[in-house]
Amino acid sequence: MTYLWSVFTKPWIGLPGDELGRLISGLGFAGAEVPVRETAYVTPATAEAELPKFTAQLRAEGIEPISVASELSEHVFAACAESGVPMIRIMAGLGPDGYAASVRRNRELLETAAVLTERYDVQVGVQPHHGRYVSSTLGVLQLLDGLPHRFKLVWDAAHDALAGDHPAVTLELGADRLGIVNLKNVHYVRSERGWTTNFVEAEDGLSDWPAVFATLRQLTYTGPICLTGQYSDPAVPVETRLERDLRFAVTSAAQHPSRE
Length: 260
Known about the structure:
Oligomer: single chain
Order of helices and strands: EHEHEHEHEHEHHEEEHEH
Radius of gyration: 18 Å
């Protein structure tokens, strides 16, 4: 069994499903994570009406929706259920009241959403994110501890590296919750604002993608792999960079193939 090579479609946030499907299929992808946000083609308010049509258009172009990046409202859960989208991806934000209080607030949000995950049979995926979020894989796993199995870890190569972790450790610890593996890469650059994050192509950052695939093989993971298309330098078109990164990811996976 091979991975479902997917892409986060945020770079083309305003495109309708048919145009988007043709574009990302042409880049070599077979799956997509779709933003359902206020600035996107499908918004939380329009999701119940628009997401089924949007995902049908993607499927007509050979693209399977793996998730939406959105909020945990019942409108979005219902839209995902109607559209056959298995997961809503979120991040756990931190507020001015500090880390511990923010984690408690996020936990309460997830516990409240548990009834919706059961009612609609839609998963919730939580991704670590550098900065004002729960930033480590281990922090997300602690946040999810004890919740039903529909609550998943969306592991992220770049943010794992920014947290100072290694995929051989964090992927193994998160294996039972692993829903999606995000691939992007990053390093730090010195600027007038001090050291800042710079999102780069696969071979230029802190994350070791071949090590990711070596670990995934050991874990017999065969779920979606999602390239997020995040690059700090706009000088090269995102499509060009994604094609190069997809080739590198496929080559790395071939060196460490998934088990049947």
